[in-house]
Amino acid sequence: MADLGIAKVTELLDLLGLVLDAHQPDHSNLNAIRMAGETASVSYKESLTPNELILALATGEIPSNRAAHFSTLMDEAPLSLIVSSVEMAALKTTVPTKQIWKHISQWTRDFQPPRKCWA
To answer: 20 to 30 A from 78, CA-CA: which of 23, 45, 71, 108?
Structure first.
C-alpha cells in the first residue's frame, strides 16, 4: 500500500463516518509512575514498584533484579507515559528532568531497545 497522506486519510475516514482527533495525552490526573511500573511488569512475576522506578530515574541506577523490567519499559511503554514519568519523578525528587533524561539515554545504550526513537 502506498503512503496515503493526510488528505486521503481524512477523506477515507469521512467516508467511514469517522473523525481524526489528534491531541496531546493528558497524564496530569493519572499516576504516570504507577502506570509505567505496571507496563514494565506485565510479563514478570514481581512488579516494579513506583518507589523503585522513581529512585532509578533519579539516580540512574537500576536494581539488578529489575533490569528486565526497565528493558521492557524502554521497549514497550508509550513514549508519552515515559515523558510523564520523567516529569513526575523530577517533581517528586530534587533531580532535574535533564539529568533524568541522561539516565534514560544511558539505559538505552545499555539495553539497545529496538525502538527507532532511542537510536
So the answer is: 45
